[in-house]
Design goal:
295 residues; alpha+beta; Beta-lactamase; two-stranded antiparallel sheet; 18% strand
Length: 295
Amino acid sequence: MAMAGLSDGAIDPSTTLFCGGTGVFFGRRFRCDARNGHGDIGVANALKASCDIFFYNVGARLGIDRIAAYAHKLTFGELTKVDLDGEKPGLVPSTQWAAAKQHRKWYPSETISVAIGQGPLLVTPLQVANLMAAIANGGTVYRPHVVRMIEKTNPDGRVERLQVASEVLHKIALPPKALETVQLGLWKVVNEEGGTGSNARVAGLNIAGKTGTVQVIAQHSWGMTASLPYKYKDHAWFASYAPKDNPQMVVVVFVEHGGHGAVDAAPLAKLMYETRFREQMQHASVATAAAGVSQ
């Protein structure tokens, strides 16, 4: 949503919108996750704080069809072409979809729910991983593969490990300033005070990410869902990449009925990053200590 709004001109990096905890859009009242609101907030900090009201406004400005166009560009509603059977494309709603599949018109108030990932929108964890990879690398969408490694035995008996060839599916033209702003917001999510992804923070590693919470049933209050039966509890998301300025790894965690992305998914991503980059961070720590001694 941030990338769509910035790319399309619905907002710019300096746009601030007011969040008072609730807002009325197309005659219906919608609430933010923060009961007391976030006050005046810009796009990078709206990502950091996961401000629903900000993105409701962006959705209202864009409309469902422009949202759908950017969602498809960023892999939602499309097959990733992973080498597994039975992949589903998910669902990105639009006015055309409502007319063709539900034989009705699309109502503007429905767009507000879609703007924060609710309503009829359906995505797979792999699509979310592709989205994060495209944001990390500047707009290239690759075909994912399920593989640990490829080995070739040479005539002399030596086993050689080969890189998996990267197949580019398509490239997305992302305005540099929009990309920079979204990447900054995702970095803030994990690394700044008040960021919803702080439980994924790893010292010495610049992780960029976004938390998410999926409602299983409609909720009309700010109450937690811990007391609900298991099958009605929220799902937890955390989507991320690292390091921010030299991306090498994307981690997407989805915990079914886990609760909240900030609490239940982000810490699992942290464990994976610590495992992957442990040796690299140890070397950096030793180098820093050595530099301190030499000074």
